[in-house]
Write a structure and sequence with these properties.
About 50% of the residues lie in helices and about 15% in strands. It has about 210 residues and is an alpha/beta fold. It has a single domain, classed as TIM Barrel.
Length: about 210
Amino acid sequence: MDISLFMNQGILSIARTAAAFYFKDKKNRRFIMDFTPQLTRNAKIRAEQEQRGIHIPPFLIASIASRCNLHCTGCYARADGACSDHHQKTEMDVSHWKSIFEQANALGISFILLAGGEPLLRKDILSLAGNYPDIIFPVFTNGTLIDEAYIDLFQNCRNLIPVLSMEGTAADTDLRRGTGISDQLSKVMSELKQRQILYGTSVTVT
């Protein structure tokens, strides 16, 4: 199968799943109705570029933080020095990310996955991302920094979708990530559900 067709079908599948959730709430309905035409526009932009021999992927992964507040067993990012407890000079500032988001939007990129380190340590970047409603930003996070202020941000900026990392079972999550992390994630998920905020999970299967 053509990779562009495969990716576009994947986007439509994601959009249908999100729409089924969003239509339960008035504010959510307004967001998804505004975003759906943008998906069509972006697909058209990418198709036009493809005709010129330029492949524009619909997804972009942006590692916005090199810090993390956890010390998970077997963390590859810490093992190779890409992640630490401290701010690193290699982290780009808001102006650089603003330029990247604007270029991505112009190129027809529909999804930018925000990763780290722990991306919630860069609230300046997440607040910036909220200003681009034509792009969906899944935020891959350990979830421990999601407080009332962050939940308000996710509620006000429906294009930011928290994706909580876990190992599967509560015992395995605590063993790898730290005692009590599973309970924290359960409380966060309950609050997100109560606020009608779409969220996802990232599960380690092996």
